[in-house]
Design goal:
Layout: E1 2-5, E2 13-14, E3 22-24, E4 29-34, H1 49-52, E5 62-68, E6 76-86, E7 90-95, E8 118-125, E9 130-133, E10 138-141, E11 145-151, E12 158-159, E13 163-164, E14 167-169, E15 180-184, E16 192-198, E17 215-224, E18 233-235, E19 239-246, H2 249-268, H3 272-282, E20 284-289, E21 295-302
Parallel strand pairs: 1-4, 3-5
Antiparallel strand pairs: 2-12, 4-17, 5-16, 6-15, 6-17, 7-8, 8-9, 9-10, 11-14, 11-16, 13-14, 15-18, 18-19, 19-21, 20-21
Helix pairs in contact: 2-3
Length: 310
């Protein structure tokens, strides 16, 4: 079955207490519309976040939750991410007062003033394969992904700007079309959320914002019954990846690499110490975000080193 999900309002929490907007079966195809992280309030370089978003109060509107029939706690939800189509001809990014990796925040308190606010508009060009900023006369390639993808956490409601074991605002560029994203099911129906699409983003999202853009995401779901996950996993054609979110950053790295080793042991037959040694030599690791309430890191290993073991 085919579903189009075009909400008239959005949620700002990952929560099991919010009413599902749709129920679907595994295998159904969904077209899900998302809004940008600023709730669509920035339209020009004259718009500043503190003014344009003053009535919004929150960032990162989410489409969801979506109830997946048959999903039960202890299962794994597999998201087959098929495509992203932009629904606006430009992306926007901005500096926000007291937010970002290179200025004071409410949790890293300093005495200096906040950096000034500023907004940049990047127009889609070249058949939506690139974005161009006229002020800088710079063109960047489009590399689209979703900054947020989640199932509802079990016992609490968590802000949509936070990542965690349930997924959330990880800002990891490998949560992208063509990849499969594995998320833990913590509640009946899984309760899936998606949003925060990016046209591009540097590793770490150091300013606190990517090239934010609304989009239509096409995907489907599968369930792995009776297999529980501790942290989100991602699979591409040539890699397996695990995302860990924590502070300090080294704990996020430990979660990601530890989960990757678990995956190699569980599904590829490695001895734990052999897997540990191997990722020590050939493992990949990058920062998704270094600005949110928890930092997200993504650990990976190429499948060519796992061949013949599955």
């Amino acid at each position: 079955m085919y579903h189009t999900v075009k909400p008239t309002s959005y949620n700002y929490l990952f929560s099991a207490d919010l009413k599902p907007i749709l129920s679907v079966d595994p295998g159904d195809i969904l077209e899900i519309y998302t809004e940008d992280a600023y709730a669509g309030q920035l339209h020009s370089e004259a718009d500043l976040v503190s003014e344009a978003c003053a009535t919004t109060q929150f960032f990162n509107p989410q489409t969801g939750p979506i109830y997946i029939n048959g999903a039960e706690p202890g299962d794994t939800l597999v998201v087959d991410f098929k495509s992203i189509e932009f629904t606006r001809p430009y992306a926007v990014t901005a500096l926000i007062k007291y937010f970002g990796g290179l200025q004071s925040t409410n949790t890293t308190r300093m005495l200096q003033d906040a950096l000034p606010e500023k907004t940049w508009i990047w127009d889609l060009v070249d058949n939506n394969t690139a974005v161009y900023n006229k002020q800088l006369d710079i063109k960047l390639p489009v590399s689209s992904f979703c900054g947020t993808m989640a199932t509802a956490p079990k016992l609490e409601s968590i802000t949509a700007v936070a990542p965690g074991y349930f997924g959330g605002n990880m800002d990891v560029p490998d949560v992208r079309p063509g990849h499969k994203i594995y998320l833990p099911v913590n509640n009946e129906g899984a309760l899936f959320y998606i949003g925060d699409c990016h046209a591009n983003q540097g590793q770490g999202e150091v300013t606190g914002a990517a090239l934010e853009i609304p989009a239509k995401c096409t995907l489907s779901f599968e369930l792995i019954k009776g297999k529980s996950l501790e942290w989100p996993r991602v699979e591409s054609e040539d890699k397996i990846m695990v995302i860990g979110s924590a502070k300090p950053m080294e704990d996020a790295a430990r979660i990601a690499y530890g989960g990757l080793i678990d995956w190699m042991v569980e599904d590829y037959g490695f001895d734990k110490l052999d897997a540990y040694m191997l990722v020590g030599q050939i493992g990949g690791l990058y920062v998704g975000n270094m600005v949110d309430s928890l930092y997200s890191l993504c650990a990976s290993i190429e499948k060519k080193y796992l061949k013949g073991r599955k």
